[in-house]
Amino acid sequence: MEPQEEVGAAGGGGAGLLELELPRRGAGEAGAVAAELEARRSGETRRLVLSRRLSGPLPAGLARWFPALEVLDVSGTGLAALGAELLELPRLRTLLAKNNRLGGPGALPKGLGQAPLARSLRVLNLSGNRFAELPAALLGLRGLQSLSLGGNRLHSIPPEIQALSSLEFLYLGGNFITSIPPELANLPSLSYLVLSDNKIQSIPPQLAQLHSLRSLSLHNNLLTYLPREILNLVHLEELSLRGNPLVVRFVRDLTYNPPSLLELAGRTMKTRNIPYASSDLPGNLVRYLSLASNCPNPKCGGVYFDSCVRQIKFVDFCGKYRLPLMHYLCSPECSSPCSSASQSSTSQSESDSEDEAIVAAHRMQKVLLG
């Protein structure tokens, strides 16, 4: 899934659109390309498509010949560097540079984040190149709304990606990414997130803070469960999970480190609602008490801090699919069928699943597992 590329005000083929077939690779090609561009210069052209091969970066003079340029497509031209001329295009809104050789040192011009382009550019597509890491220069493009880096060689997503606060579409499929930074949740406008065909093993629960998210593509990764918080993505319409080793049976992980004396005291204060003021306790204990998490078992009503039991629980979606969601319980008794308190836990768990299924059916219109 790639976004519809912006065509600016070109109107799809009238005045303002220039598609140039470049000469084939050969001696003097760079000069021939520049000469032909200069010969077809226009102050009204807003969309320029260059095809065939380029032997060097963007020709010097491009900004003078096409000062109104808003959309530039240099996909499949063999570019290894975009060049400094890119910085001279202050009105550029869309840059398509797919399927090239970009990725080495100097692939992007220095000063990209400080150029006028950093404020005007809205769509950037660098898919099908050779980037091994997300270029730091891109983090200065604060007006960027759509970023595509699919089919590169990325192994990670830098936490600094949160600087792209206007981002609505992020495509990072077909890389070698192994984890998702929690900072990705700090993109308030993100609506479409594509992380398919990577090596991701888990999803940080912080992604539930992406309240604008409508589509989440995670197919063909290494996921075995999803965080329970994913149910909080109230606007999510499409969740793609096919091709993941999602667990196929109900699994409980009861590996449990007993709570410390500090945690036991904190649990007691919270569950018994013992009043306290900031003047009653040291500052570090007040902060510690503020970190209490509620146990999701409605029969329990307890809290936990650092010591909890992880439990994978299946929830039906749309009456068809069962997704494994991660729960964090305050103690093994909350999930163990051996205790008297838990004899009703099984039926309660089934009831919880039904309740969550009802909620999920409204929130997840499309779950793709097969």
UniProtKB/TrEMBL annotation:
A GO CC term assigned to this protein in UniProt: cytoplasm
Taxonomic path: Eukaryota, Metazoa, Chordata, Craniata, Vertebrata
Keywords: Leucine-rich repeat, Repeat
Record InterPro entries: Leu-rich_rpt, Leu-rich_rpt_typical-subtyp, LRR_dom_sf, LRR_domain-containing
Gene3D superfamilies: Ribonuclease Inhibitor
Highest rank taxon of the organism: Eukaryota
Keyword Repeat: yes
Stored SUPFAM superfamilies: RNI-like (SSF52047)
Record-given protein name: Uncharacterized protein
PANTHER family hit by this protein: LEUCINE RICH REPEAT CONTAINING 58, PTHR48051
Keyword Oxidoreductase: no
Pfam families reported in the protein's UniProt record: LRR_1, LRR_8
UniProt-listed SMART domains: LRR_TYP
